[in-house]
Amino acid sequence: MDRYDTQTMETDGEARRVKSYRDLIVWQKAMKLCADTYQATAAFPEAERFGLVSQMRRAAVSIPSNVAEGHGRLSTNEYRQFLGIARGSLKELETQILIASDLGYLGDAADACSGLADEVGRMLSTLIAALRSRPK
């Protein structure tokens, strides 16, 4: 079973209190996107090892990392700032997915990665909007 298969991490559809960044579904899905990115880029040409592969992996790692770091910050404003950085890294990865797809490197993985990236993007935007109404 996939470690970040979010279907198995949810408890019977009920909302639960977030005690850790690991409880955030957006973090879980971002971790899956990161793992999928690593798997997809493993088959890229050797010439891309220090180019597109490195950039895509770095951007993918940045997304859940910034969600986690922001969650650990002391203020809502800091949290939102790190979620904004995560969203920027996501946009970077989305662009790189398109480039890799146009170059013929991703094959079938392109649609799956793009779909998951879209979902993570919507979730980040929703979380950022929800935090705007909280005390700073």
Descriptive notes:
This protein is mostly helical. The chain has one domain (20-132): de novo design (two linked rop proteins) (Up-down Bundle). The chain has 4 helices and no strands. α3 (76-102) runs antiparallel to α4. The N and C termini lie far apart (40 Å). The model is unreliable at 1-12 (pLDDT under 50).
Quick tags:
single chain; 0% strand; de novo design (two linked rop proteins); 136 residues; 4 helices; elongated; disordered N terminus; mainly alpha
Question: In brief, what are we looking at here?
Answer:
The protein has 136 residues and is an all-alpha fold. Helix content is 65%, strand content 0%. The termini are far apart.
